[in-house]
Amino acid sequence: PPFTAQLNSLIQISYPNLRYLYLSQYDFHINQTAIRNITCLPSNLYGIYLNKYEIIIPTRIFINTIISYSNTFRLLYLSETQITDDTIHSRCRKLKRLNIFNIKN
Asked: Do the beta carbons of residue 95 and residue 70 sit within 8 Å?
């Protein structure tokens, strides 16, 4: 299912203490506007796991979202993901753990 505003609201309301977010098989290059919904997730995330995540050209929104978690964000897990080096480098300085497997780009 798409990462809709309704799904995002449900996550915010139901899980205000969410620490880790797992996204699997999301394809944002079909609908780039859907990625905006991630920007409203709880701001105290420790880690994001992206599995088979497709984003041909990471938008400024996505990069800024990753950067916005600078106070708490410590883990970025990428598996079978298409993402650019710039997106990863924008966060690597503060990460305590970075797992990358089968990166397509």
From this structure: no
Residue 2: pLDDT over 70: no
Q: What is the mean pLDDT of the chain?
A: 66
Give the model confidence (pLDDT) of 78-97 as tens digits: 666 666 666 566 555 556 55
What torsion, rounded to 10 degrees, do the Cα atoms 38, 17, 73, 2 define? -20
Query: How many other β-carbons are positioned within 10 Å of the β-carbon of residue 47?
Result: 19
